[in-house]
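Hey, quick one: can you model this chain's 3D structure?
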Amino acid sequence: MNAIACSRTRMHLLLFSLLWACLSAGPVKAESAGTEAWFEQDEPDVSGVNEGELELFTSPPPGGPFHHHQNQLTITGDSLRSGWVELTQCHEHLDPVPLAEIAFRQGHVRNLALTRATGIGKAKVAEHSVQLEDISAQAQLCLSAELKLVTRLDNGRYLLRSGPYMRRFLDGFYPMRVSLRILRNGYNGTVELIHPRPSQGLVLAREDDQLHIDALFAGRLLLEFELADHP
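Sure thing. Here's the predicted structure for all 231 residues.
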């Protein structure tokens, strides 16, 4: 990555490759292996920042509202065989920046489409990325896609991995909120969160065929689920 001559906050969201870049000499491209995000800030608030160790909050820290990253993953009857799951995703409480790019890992995304873009001057899909311009403080963004997230384990079960999520400025990590809902459509097997375990700061709830995760945290959050092809 080339350095950018402006203050910035970096967030890595490995569910997909996302880049929020401040403009200087031009846009910066996200690496295909991961997600990197930069927010332009003249004087970033360094209160309450940690150095990467996961810290789950039982009550909101000062400085909110924080970037809210919302995902819905649907496991279909074909997901274990193909590895593909359906994604709908929304972002709220974005910092205003002049340019942003959501770049998914090439070969692991298909049928990418924008479903909502408000408070954004321009939004378009370009191959395996979404390109945005003139993002306001009230911006909201939603999209849909299919992602290849499921891999087979040696024990005959399957792993679905989401993350790691993080909001980073230089060597510090800042609070953010992640909400994840997993649905089943034609898949009758089990879905079990294996990492991290539920705690006061990471809420897990089940409702019919749905599983809900909600976490407000700083540091790195990696969510891993084990799937089985039988109830």
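One thing worth noting: DSSP finds one helix and 17 strands in the chain.
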